[in-house]
Design a protein that fits this description.
With about 650 residues, the protein is an alpha+beta fold. The chain folds into 3 domains: about 80 residues, Alpha-Beta Plaits; about 240 residues, DHBP synthase; about 190 residues, 2-Layer Sandwich (Nucleotidyltransferase, domain 5). It has 19 helices and 28 strands. About 45% of the residues are buried. Bound molecules: zinc ion (ZN) (2 copies). One zinc ion binds next to helix 3.
Length: about 650
């Protein structure tokens, strides 16, 4: 008899299975660990003597993860076989695993208040990497040698077996704190803790603390109505206060606390936060060691949250906490949650580096600052050799290369291929919708992607001229608009072509945040049931930019609420997309539908897409962001 334990895990990354392997090693349990496409499956003999202890340890040391789902266990007569995947085991930047966290807060450990605590499965690792292969001598820790205790640990602790970046307070990175007058150093347990205590006290008194974290330089401050909150992120220090301040579904709560520590847009609840941020804000739970230790001290001072902004090296503050080891940071990643769906919206952390199972050998491709070469995706500076016989470059990529076989490609086509590849659908005909600041309808004929309904050009510069020529009576609309909103008219009339359709929408609706993000945020403020019909489709199935702006102008003339209009924009897009998709799928007899592009990460649009297209079972990226960032993977299938 065999005991089988299945845990849903929808990612090709190895950090969870590595923790399970380390626990199995520690307990000396005889266990098979299979990482399949969507599960991690553990199999042991039913009478395995250490099984119970292993499961107990697993319960306390397995981190929460956005990729983990339901689990179940059963008994089997025969030993079951599973098709496993090749795991991505390159070093990612994550928060700390439960075991490393315990160490960091245990006064008897060698890593008490040591912010660089990490192991083979957690913490900041990519930040220290200089180039592949991933070894200490290729990291910025190369000049620090591990002490005797760390060297022993590399042999004995299954979580840190041969760990390239091992360090502790005795042999690791020291911190310094500077203010206008003096400098303070931390190099033993007492002084590390003191430093975070002082920083937290300063913040609680309204001072600004700049801190070099392993996830980048951050400016921490107590948010008040006088603070510049634009582009700031709310850091919740105390998990037990999350539900007091924010309006969340359980999925959002769990995701915030997961080891991946995403950035989430969440609705405000407490009066305090509503006053500061209105209806919603970008929020996260402390992620890297530095931020976690600061948060712990802030919590002691009863500060439930602070704000931070990512900042430059020369940013000014009352205090600076820094260390002398150089680090390279990745952009934070944003997550979208709607019921049981979690989508990576954008970002680099957690997503890269990636390994690809069947890469095109000899192909080097460039897209969105990343390269794909011989089965690895990361930034170019991490590779010392670039073996290539052909080079693919995305059209927008500003790279000039002297090379014979250079091919240019459209990013949105590679995006669609990345979705098909992730779902093993490259042998099927498919319709794709790609929606970032432009909306494309695509067709995959089992060989290549064709742009079948491509977006029409949008010129913000000649906005009113184009609207005037739209149809009979449009000139009257422009005149009325000019009369009622003279200042706004003048502003819109002076825009140049660097403004895209969503920027113009935000300006027209006089949103504070004049971008796509502003429209999404404003749509969330709408509490009503249904929106109004915005004119999206005009001729031959094409979305007409100017008809759409004209439609918004006429609603604005009636003083319609901006929240209602932003919500309605997405609803109308959802209806238009569904209409075209249904036509195209029928016409081409395709049964697969892919969605890609950041715009889909929007509650109003997603709700509408679900309502209209759920039966088509649309597929989206899993291991890659749905927006920019998936192209580089797709280049292997061009
Ligand atoms: Zn760890
Ligand atoms: Zn050490």
């Amino acid at each position: 008899m065999y005991f089988v334990f299945e845990i849903e895990f929808k990612s090709n990354k190895s950090y969870i299975s590595d923790i399970i392997k380390a626990i199995a090693k520690k307990i000396s349990v005889d266990l098979d660990i299979n990482h399949t496409k969507d599960k991690i499956i553990l199999v042991s003999k039913k009478d395995e003597p250490e099984l119970e202890e292993f499961l107990k340890d697993l319960e306390s040391n397995l981190p929460a993860s956005i990729n983990l789902g339901k689990s179940k266990h059963y008994l089997a007569d025969e030993k079951p076989e599973f098709e496993t995947i090749v795991e991505n085991s390159l070093p990612l930047d994550l928060a700390l695993c439960p075991s490393c966290q315990k160490e960091m807060f245990d006064v008897s450990s060698r890593r008490y208040y040591y912010p660089f605590t990490s192991c083979n499965c957690c913490g900041s690792r990519h930040s220290f990497l200089e180039q592949y292969p991933y070894k200490r001598k290729n990291s910025t820790m190369k000049f620090l040698s591990p002490c005797q205790a760390c060297q022993n640990e590399m042999k004995e602790n299954p979580l840190r077996r041969d760990y390239p970046l091992i360090s502790c307070i005795d042999c690791g990175i020291s911190l310094k704190m500077l203010d206008k007058k003096d400098e303070r150093y931390a190099n033993d347990k007492g002084s590390y803790r003191k430093l975070f205590e002082v920083a937290a006290k300063a913040i609680s008194k309204g001072k600004v603390v700049i801190m070099q974290t392993t996830f980048g330089r951050r400016k921490f401050f107590k948010p008040t109505q006088q603070s510049e909150l634009d582009k700031s992120i709310l850091l919740i220090t105390d998990a037990s206060k999350l539900n007091e301040h924010l309006m969340m579904v359980p999925q959002e709560f769990n995701a915030l606390l997961s080891i991946e520590r995403p950035l989430l847009r969440i609705a405000t609840k407490s009066t305090e936060l509503k006053k500061l941020y209105e209806s919603s804000l970008w929020c996260k739970y402390p992620d890297d060691g530095m931020s976690m230790l600061l948060a712990k001290e802030l919590m002691t001072l009863s500060l439930d949250f602070v704000a931070y902004k990512e900042c430059e090296d020369d940013s000014d503050g009352d205090f600076l906490i820094d260390f002398d080891i150089p680090i390279k940071t990745q952009n934070d990643f944003k997550l979208f949650i709607n019921q049981d769906i979690k989508l990576l919206i954008s970002g680099e952390r957690l997503i890269y580096p990636q390994t690809i199972t069947n890469p095109k050998r000899g192909r080097l491709s460039f897209a969105n600052d990343f390269i794909s070469v011989d089965g690895v995706i990361d930034k170019i500076e991490y590779f010392s050799k670039l073996p290539a016989s052909e080079v693919y470059i995305e059209n927008d990529e500003p790279i000039e290369l002297e090379f014979e076989n250079i091919y240019k490609f459209d990013g949105f086509k590679a995006s669609m291929l990345s979705v098909l590849a992730e779902h093993d659908r490259l042998t099927k005909k498919a319709i794709g919708v790609h929606f970032d600041d432009k909306l494309h309808f695509l067709y995959y004929n089992q060989k290549e992607v064709i742009d079948i309904v491509s977006p029409k050009e949008f010129n913000a510069k000649s906005l009113f001229e184009n609207i005037t020529n739209l149809r009979n009576g449009s000139d009257r609309l422009v005149k009325n608009f000019k009369k009622k909103f003279p200042d706004l008219y003048e502003r819109l009339d002076k825009l140049d072509n660097k403004y895209n359709i969503f920027d113009v929408t935000a300006i027209l609706l006089e949103l504070e945040n004049e971008s796509f993000d502003g429209i999404s945020a404003t749509a969330l403020t709408f509490m009503g049931k249904g929106g109004v019909q915005i004119d999206i489709k005009v001729e031959d199935n094409y979305f007409n930019n100017y008809a759409y702006i004209a439609s918004l102008m006429s609603y604005k003339l009636t003083d319609a609420d901006a929240g209602l209009l932003c919500y309605s924009i997405y609803e109308s897009f959802g209806d238009y997309i569904a209409d075209i998709v249904n036509q195209l799928m029928n016409k081409t007899k395709s049964t697969t539908l892919t969605l890609s592009g950041e715009t889909f990460a929007n509650q109003a649009l997603w709700g509408r897409i679900q309502r209209n297209l759920a039966l088509k079972k649309p597929i989206l990226n899993v291991n890659y962001p749905i927006g920019h960032g998936n192209e580089i993977y797709g280049t292997n299938y061009l």
